[in-house]
Every structure is written in structure tokens, then in C-alpha cells.
């Protein structure tokens, strides 16, 4: 055995409670126990045989250390306390003990000593004290001198005020503040000779962001701190750092933001920030390259034409449908990106429409055996003819919807009305194939009947004279193969479109509908409401019409 007494199994170390009682005797701290008991005996000899609660006595000495009622023995207890800093809840850096006594000295004049203890946490709730740097760091002050002299390192008091009156006080080291911020360096230099430099910053937008920006001055590796903060907060810190000319913080924020992805909200914040501040750095140019395109308007228009052309020639059905929805949303007038997008070139879109029509003519020629199958594309020979025709009609309707949304579809009415080859091929084609052409006519009828498409009466007349008859023949197939088409809306729109023509032309078209409807019934569109309106306008008000014509 080594001669040391073993502790009993039933005994254990007593916990050191926050009531500041004597530390338990232990082999690890014999000097602390001896010092405490010696001090306690000295205090008892000076204060007399009275028994006092050590907790209440310590509270009184901390709250009002310089009050007349305080005895020298109480101050000596405070002086012999462990000089380590005490971290308050939520503090990111230590609180100097000597400065805290100075704050308590001021609070003792306003409140009684009993209530002063309760007011300590509230008085520090909006304060921040930076850690004291080592002699070889930014601050040239000696840390030992700071503790003995009562906090000389905190020689700048920064008062931050919001518009609503909320205030935050930061006590900082002038050397660190001046070496990091050109703005504060000038203010500190202007108040040289004063023991405490007081700086007030009014109308601060966010006190927390300003405080975090100041705290970064005391960080050796700002990048690690920014990773924990996140992109949105880093943008706010960048704005404050640029305002106070904190160059090291600005550079760290720019490098961090350039390397991480942004949300749309964060991108808008960066756009706004770069319009108000100018950053002279290569990293800022990289961020600007992500925010703003350097391409010309012609390049963007050519890109839109290339995308549209690629979609119409895409062979994969699922991919084509997905890309159609994507590009249509981007080019739509109601798109969130429309305000930043130049107008698309109408000629480019109509050139794509013309190419789709040319392919459609070739397919119908193939369907009517007007051309040999050897002339059909090798890539398309593996797919059924009906599927290939349907795909081209889908492409035309998709292009037509974009043109209608951007109010550029007037020329498409003339283009579709003058498809003489397709009209001839429609007469010779099978009903299960030819109805696809009436799907294009249906989109135009609905657009004109609902007022979304405005064109002259000659264009409307030419469209109805060309495609009204084929629509009557294909209506039954359209009912069976709707493909998203609203048949009720189509019937209503056809009647309204007919009523926009002169009455003499209405007579010809309504008579054609009447004969078709009497033979085919529900296989023909029901235009009864429009027919009644035409009848009333033509015959019941005939006398009024004759009177107008005679005058």
C-alpha cells in the first residue's frame, strides 16, 4: 500500500452549491478550503459575533459594493473572488467583473439594495462586451492591467438605436474596432483624449445583425461563423459590413455567398444590395455574373426559338410534354419572369408553325397514299401514322396557345384559313385521322368566341368558310376523342363566332348547320341558341332593317 487512506465506499464528494458555502475538503483543492476558512475567521473577528447569512451578505456586496453600509471585510471577499469571467445566459463573450461592479455602482443610486439584485440581469440584457485580446493581437492593452484597473480595454461605448426606440449598447475595444472599420476608425480618432469614446448609430434596421457584424471583428475565421449563420443572414451582415467599411467582413461574406446556392428571395436581396453598394473585388464580379446575364436581346430571342423548335421535334412523349409545360410557363405573360424577359420574335414562332404545317401536310399525303412510304422519315417509320399526326397537331396547338397568350395569333387565323392542301387531303383522309385537323380549328373558334382573339371580319369569314364544314363532319370524333377539349365551350364559341359575321354570311353557314344537324343529330354541334338569335335579327326585326336601309 502507498500509505494513503482509502475513502469509504459509503462516502462521496459533496456538490459545490451556488450558495457560496465553503468548498468541500478534497485532495484536489486543499488550498481553497484553507483560504476560505482563514478568510471566514478574519471576517468573523472584524464583524463581531453576529451570524449573517453568507448569501445575503454576498448579494449586498455585489449590488452596492461602494455603499456606506458596506464594510471592508465585504469588499475584501469580493476582491478575493475568482477573477474568471461569468457567462450570462445568451452571452457570446465574457463579461468583465470589474465593469460589472461599475454598472452596479450606478444602479445603486436609483434602486434600493434589495431590488438591485433582481435588476442585474435586466440591465445587461441588451449589452455586449468583447473579449480582451492578448498583447500580440489587435489590442495593445495589457489584460492584467485591465482586470486591476477596472476595464480600461472597453474604451468605446457603441449605442445602437432603432426607429422604434429600442436600444442596444456594445462596449468594445477601440483598437480592434478601429483596425477593422474605417468608419469607426475616423470617429474614434476624432474623440482622442477621452477615457470613454461614445458613438451613437441611429435608425439601425436590425440590432441583432449589427451586433453579429461587430462580433465578426473578433473572429479569426469568419468563414466558419458564416457557415453556421446561413445565406440569408450573411446577406444582411454584408450590408452592414459594407456600410461601416468592414473590409475583412465584406470579403468573407462575398466569398461565402459566391460558393453557395441561393433561393429566389435571397437572389432578390442580393440584387437590391448590389444596386446600392459597389464592391471592388473579383468575387463580387463572380456574384454579378450569377445575377445578371451578359447576353444580348438577340441571343435570348434566338435561344427561345431554339427551345421551341427543339420541343416540336422531340420524339419522347413524356419529355416533350414536360418541356412544353416548362417553356410555356416561362414565355407566358402571367409568368413571374415576364418582367425581366424581352418580347419574343413573332417571326421565329411563325417559322416554327410553318415547319409543323409542312410536316402535317406530308403526313396526310402519306395517309392518303399520295406519296410512297419510302419517302417517310426513317426515324418516324417505327411509329403509327395516327400518333405522328397527333403529335404535330399537339405542337401546333401548343404554339397557338403561346401566341394567344402574347396576343400575336391574328396572323395564325389567316395562315390556317389558307391551308388549301390540308383541306383537300381532309376530304380524302379517314375520319379517325382527319378529325385531328379540326382540333386546331376548335382552338381558334373558342378563342374568337370568348373574345381572346380579335381579328377583322374578313379573317373570321375566311376561317369559317374553310373549316366550318370539316368541323361539322368531325364533331362526333371530337366528342369521342376530346383530348382535353371542352365540347360545351366549343359549341357556344362556334355560335358566337358565327354571329360576328354579316347576316348574309350567317344565313349560308346556319343553313349548312341546320341540314347537318337534321341528319346527324348529336354527331353535330348544337347551335340552337345562336340560330334563334340569328332568326330574330334577320326576320323579326326585318322591318326595322328595311327602314334603316331605305334611309
List keywords for this structure.
mainly alpha; 26 helices; disordered N terminus; 551 residues
What is the number of beta strands?
4
Strand content: under 5%
Low-confidence stretches: 1-22, 35-127, 130-152
What is the typical, i.e. mean, pLDDT?
74
Tell me about the largest β-sheet: 4 strands, mixed
Query: What is the string of helix and strand elements?
Result: HHHHHEHEEHHEHHHHHHHHHHHHHHHHHH
Short characterization:
This protein is mostly helical and 551 residues long.
Describe this structure in words.
The chain has 551 residues and is mainly alpha-helical. The protein is 61% helix and 4% strand. It has 26 helices and four strands. It has a four-stranded mixed beta sheet. It is elongated, with a radius of gyration of 43 Å.
Write the SSE topology.
Elements: H1 30-47, H2 54-63, H3 72-79, H4 97-108, H5 113-123, E1 127-129, H6 143-149, E2 156-161, E3 167-172, H7 174-180, H8 182-190, E4 197-201, H9 207-216, H10 222-229, H11 231-243, H12 247-259, H13 264-276, H14 282-291, H15 297-312, H16 317-331, H17 346-367, H18 385-405, H19 410-417, H20 420-428, H21 431-449, H22 457-480, H23 487-498, H24 503-520, H25 528-540, H26 542-550
Parallel strand pairs: 1-3, 2-4
Antiparallel strand pairs: 2-3
Helix pairs in contact: 2-3, 2-5, 7-8, 9-11, 10-12, 11-12, 11-13, 12-14, 15-16, 15-17, 17-18, 17-20, 18-21, 19-22, 21-22, 21-23, 22-24, 23-25, 24-25
Amino acid at each position: 500500500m502507498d500509505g494513503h487512506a482509502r475513502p469509504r465506499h459509503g462516502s462521496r464528494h459533496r456538490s459545490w452549491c451556488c450558495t457560496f458555502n465553503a468548498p468541500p475538503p478534497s485532495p484536489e483543492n486543499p488550498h481553497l478550503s484553507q483560504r476560505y476558512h482563514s478568510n471566514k475567521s478574519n471576517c468573523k473577528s472584524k464583524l463581531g459575533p453576529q451570524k449573517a447569512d453568507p448569501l445575503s451578505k454576498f448579494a449586498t456586496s455585489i449590488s452596492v459594493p461602494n455603499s456606506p453600509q458596506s464594510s471592508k471585510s465585504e469588499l475584501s471577499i469580493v476582491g478575493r473572488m475568482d477573477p474568471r469571467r461569468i457567462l450570462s445566459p445568451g452571452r457570446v463573450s465574457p463579461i468583465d467583473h470589474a465593469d460589472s461592479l461599475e454598472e452596479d455602482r450606478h444602479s445603486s443610486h436609483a434602486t434600493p439594495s434589495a431590488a438591485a439584485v433582481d435588476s442585474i440581469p435586466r440591465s445587461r440584457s441588451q449589452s455586449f462586451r468583447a473579449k480582451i485580446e492578448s498583447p500580440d493581437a489587435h489590442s495593445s492593452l495589457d489584460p492584467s492591467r485591465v482586470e486591476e484597473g477596472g476595464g480600461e480595454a472597453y474604451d468605446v461605448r457603441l449605442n445602437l438605436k432603432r426607429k422604434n426606440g429600442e436600444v442596444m449598447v456594445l462596449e468594445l475595444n477601440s483598437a480592434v474596432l478601429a483596425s477593422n472599420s474605417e468608419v469607426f476608425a475616423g470617429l474614434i480618432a476624432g474623440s482622442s483624449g477621452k477615457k470613454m469614446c461614445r458613438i451613437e448609430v441611429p435608425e439601425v434596421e436590425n440590432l441583432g445583425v449589427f451586433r453579429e457584424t461587430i462580433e465578426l471583428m473578433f473572429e479569426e475565421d469568419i468563414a466558419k461563423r458564416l457557415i453556421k449563420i446561413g445565406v440569408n443572414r450573411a446577406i444582411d451582415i454584408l450590408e452592414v459590413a459594407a456600410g461601416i467599411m468592414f473590409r475583412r467582413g465584406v470579403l468573407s461574406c462575398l466569398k461565402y455567398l459566391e460558393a453557395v446556392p441561393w433561393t429566389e428571395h435571397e437572389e432578390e436581396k442580393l440584387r437590391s444590395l448590389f444596386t446600392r453598394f459597389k464592391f471592388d473585388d473579383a468575387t463580387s464580379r463572380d456574384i454579378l455574373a450569377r445575377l445578371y446575364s451578359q447576353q444580348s436581346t438577340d441571343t435570348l430571342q434566338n435561344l427561345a426559338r431554339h427551345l421551341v423548335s427543339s420541343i416540336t421535334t422531340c420524339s419522347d412523349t413524356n419529355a416533350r410534354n414536360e418541356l412544353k409545360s416548362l417553356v410555356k410557363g416561362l414565355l407566358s405573360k402571367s409568368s413571374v419572369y415576364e418582367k425581366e424577359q424581352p418580347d419574343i420574335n413573332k417571326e421565329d414562332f411563325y417559322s416554327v408553325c410553318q415547319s409543323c404545317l409542312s410536316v402535317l401536310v406530308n403526313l396526310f399525303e402519306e395517309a392518303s397514299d399520295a406519296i410512297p412510304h419510302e419517302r417517310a422519315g426513317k426515324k418516324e417509320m417505327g411509329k403509327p401514322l395516327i400518333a405522328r399526326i397527333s403529335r404535330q397537331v399537339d405542337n401546333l396547338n401548343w404554339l397557338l396557345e403561346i401566341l394567344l397568350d402574347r396576343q400575336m395569333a391574328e396572323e395564325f387565323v389567316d395562315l390556317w384559313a389558307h391551308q388549301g392542301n390540308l383541306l383537300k387531303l381532309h376530304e380524302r383522309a379517314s375520319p379517325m385521322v382527319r378529325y385531328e385537323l379540326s382540333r386546331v380549328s376548335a382552338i381558334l373558334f373558342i378563342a374568337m368566341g370568348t373574345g381572346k382573339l380579335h381579328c377583322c371580319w374578313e379573317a373570321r369569314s375566311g376561317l369559317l368558310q374553310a373549316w366550318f364544314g370539316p368541323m361539322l363532319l368531325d364533331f362526333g370524333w371530337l366528342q369521342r376523342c376530346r383530348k382535353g377539349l371542352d365540347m360545351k365551350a366549343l359549341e357556344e364559341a362556334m355560335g358566337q363566332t358565327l354571329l360576328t359575321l354579316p347576316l348574309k354570311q350567317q344565313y349560308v353557314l346556319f343553313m349548312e348547320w341546320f341540314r347537318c344537324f337534321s341528319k346527324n343529330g348529336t354527331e353535330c354541334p348544337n347551335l340552337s341558341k345562336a340560330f334563334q338569335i340569328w332568326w330574330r335579327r334577320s326576320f323579326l326585326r326585318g322591318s326595322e332593317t328595311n327602314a334603316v336601309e331605305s334611309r
